[in-house]
Amino acid sequence: MEFFRIKRDIPFMSYGRLTTAISLVTFILAVFFLATKGLNFSVEFTGGTVMEVQYPQAANLPDIRKRVEGLRLGDVQVQSLGTSRDVLIRLPSKKDKSSAQLSNEVLGALKAGGTQVDLRKVEFVGPSVGEELVSHGLTAITIVCIGIMLYLALRFEWRFAVSAIIANMHDVVIILGCFALFQWEFSLTVLAGVLAVLGYSVNESVVVFDRIRENFRKPGMRGRNTAQIIDNAITSTISRTIITHGSTEAMVLSMLLFGGPALHGFAMALTIGIVFGIYSSVLVASPIALALGVKREHMIKPVKPKEEAVV
Amino acid sequence: MNRYPLWKYLVIAVALVVSAIYTLPNFYGETPAVQVSSSRQSIPVNTDVMARVESALKQQGVQPDGMFLDGNSLKVRFHDPDAQIKARDTIQQALGDNYIIALNLLSASPEWLTRLKAHPMFLGLDLRGGVHFLLEVDMKAAIDKTMERYAGDLRRELKAKKVRYGTIKRDANGLEIQLRDAETLKATEDVVARTLPAFTQNADDSTYRLRLALKPEEVTRIQSDAVKQNITTLHNRVNELGVAEPVIQQSGPNRIVVQLPGVQDTAKAKDILGRTATLEVRMVEDDSAKVADALAGNVPTGYDLLDEMTPRGPQKILVKKDVELTGDNINDAQPGFDENGTPAVHINLDSTGAAIFRDVTAENIGRRMAMILVEKGRAEVVTAPVIRSEIGGGRVQISGSMNAAEAGDVALLLRAGSLAAPMQIVEERTIGPSLGKENIEKGFHSTLWGFAAIAVFMMIYYRMFGVISTLSLAVNLLMLVALLSMLQATLTLPGIAAIALTLGMAIDANVLINERIREELRNGVPPQSAIQAGYQHAWATILDSNVTTMIAGLALLIFGSGPVRGFAVVHCLGILTSIFSAVLVSRGFVNLWYGRRRRLTTVSIGQVWKPEQ
């Protein structure tokens, strides 16, 4: 079985203008949603208390809301979580009460009148911790970007490093944009997913760049211009790109289906990251590298005769 | 050309066998057990205790599955949870309050595995349920408290040297002393240099003002001591909860993580963690008539009959109700030795405490004073030494009739009365046991079905090479689980997600290799050379892509906290195992299968389509 029966190189680079336009539009949309709607940060970032309770039968949300609001705790959110029996309750921080007191009070209100309910999880985070997480998260993203750029600049060329990072950030911003648009909860686990995408999606660019470098060094490719060389590199790696991403996506999809609410956000971030990862590494990173003026000379400089001897 | 030297096969074989052995304990599950440990160093858990437990259980007709000593604790296995709970009550009754009896789950893996130090993976709280607290120590308060002590010391020293001074002002960074003239300034400088080496001095000769600032290393020491002391205190309190494997550790410069697996009652846990035990110093009544009265159940008014905890068991002791001194006046208590080399406890009192102590000791020479720890409304005499002489200066030494371990216990109990600095809960998480079990199940199913989907696809698409890829992916999983079990790294739900994701990403290397081999075949290269070239060309790409992924993983590890770190640890380990398995192991399989055939005309890698066909 062979899925990809491509006779001639696909002229990806000639679509450069179109793809750049598409990217730009999605990017701007993502930034727009981030700016207008903002991320729906989880309690880990904002501080406060979150409770998860489970009822033996389907939960009666309006009744729960009425009971919790009766306690006058301020801005309380009650929502169902995955199934109709699981309910998530968010409470704001209270200066004069500890979260254990808060959660006990709420549980008491829910249990009043002999209602059966099971406390599954309580999470409380102080406000200072949240600020720290945001700053650590941003530092982590910056360090990852710098580290990857340095490595790519050393292994390849600075033009490749810059275009790979731009393509990568494009993916990250789009993931964040989706989370802002649909107001999905942005938790620490989702942040881990986003950072994993950063490492994963750069793989893709690396594979293509590796091929471009190899093509530049091949004697048979002498007559072709840079755009043709990049087209050839992308075409010859496209089948592995699709298959690899398909496999990873199979795994992520399995997490999305079987992983339950705890892994839902993580799997969602990765799904978006993988889909846009394919697109951006092929149709964003390479055109940028081309626009930055990658040439054969940049790649040939460190001539290593041994590596050139291709079987 | 596709042959490995024998040593490479051996490396792979050894790696596989070791991985298999260390993965094995994860399959055995757990049995209920009761864990007996001692709350004090001076009370060892030994074969003696084991015999007592055994006979107590026999009397109650509870049949243990086995028991063994592990370090300073005794673990007793049971067949079912009912027997476990019955046994806990029985053992608690038989041994009394000096032992901590906790319910636990022990790995049911056979003994030979345990002897190889092969344990199942260490599950995080989100997988087994429990309470997690993150406490922040108030460092400013710790410094303030120390500064107060130093100010007191200085006043005392200056008085002793008869140096007249004006005021001693205390602020966030140090002390400021106003003096009268150059002479007293000089004298004060000498006193400070001799008795308070923790300060740097800065004298103003025109106004006769002396500024003292804490040295930076002293500040660091105070802060780390404060965290350490609070951790010790927390340990004591957690012991009381009867948690089998509590985690209490420093996290960052001023935070302490407390994890109590299996505990569900957060309110109680918080109550115990946040409780302040108080220490009281009261006089002992040794008048034999009164003691006899009290022992007969007729305690005189103004007296309490309390238990003194001695290594030989509790002993009754009669003390006055009047409190002479409280733990608030104790700055520090440390075990050590006296001038004769016998174990002793050194107590450091603040200036008020020192003054009171001097008066009390002057009036009561030859009598006994009791140091009483009051906790949960229950008073217990820690130690009751005889007063030999008047003690001034705030430095108290208790010695005699105790060994080094007991001195350590007494010092700990005296310190337990106070936290070095107040703490605040900044993060709290409770996970029910049912949710933990569900999380394991969900994580397991995600990985299983994802793996199955990839395996089926690879085998259909790449045939024999797909089988080999799947095998090496399985090896990857095996090695990753083995590595996690060996390192006893905490596995959390994000960690399971990382296992799944690592497998999903690891297949990339095999796809790269297989596609390369197909490409070589498409270009008309004979099979053996195609395999060789495919692996060779793919290697550089595999390395590059894994290094970049590793950079992201390491950044997560360094800057991540909580769930992010749990993800990052597994992710980084997974990258290492996947390079090994995808390149070395899969090549090993290929070489075994194809390498020996001289005239290899076709390889089973699925259909290789050529444009000219």
What does this structure look like?
The complex is a heterodimer of chains A (about 300) and B (about 625). Chain A has about 300 residues and is α+β, with helices and mostly antiparallel strands. Chain A has helices at about 15-35, 45, 60-70, 100-110, 125-155, 160-180, 190-215, 225-260, 260-290, 295-300, 305-310; strands at about 40, 50-55, 75-80, 85-90, 120-125, 185. Chain A folds into 2 domains: about 10-40 and about 130-300, Up-down Bundle (Multidrug efflux transporter AcrB transmembrane fold); about 50-125, Alpha-Beta Plaits (2-Layer Sandwich), CATH 3.30.70.3400. Chain A is built from 11 helices and 6 strands. In chain A, strand 3 and strand 4 form a beta hairpin. In chain A, helix 1 (about 15-35) packs across helix 6 (about 160-180), helix 6 packs antiparallel against helix 9 (about 260-290) and helix 7 runs parallel beside helix 9. The mean pLDDT of chain A is about 85. Chain B folds into 4 domains: about 5-25 and about 430-595, Multidrug efflux transporter AcrB transmembrane domain (Multidrug efflux transporter AcrB transmembrane fold); about 30-110, Alpha-Beta Plaits (2-Layer Sandwich); about 140-215, Alpha-Beta Plaits, CATH 3.30.70; about 275-420, Gyrase A, domain 2 (2-Layer Sandwich), CATH 3.30.1360. Helix content of chain B is about 50%, strand content about 25%. Chain B is elongated. Classes of the chains: A alpha+beta (about 300), B alpha+beta (about 625). Chains A and B meet through helix 4, strand 5, helix 5, helix 7 and helix 8 of A and helix 9, strand 22, helix 13, helix 14 and helix 15 of B.
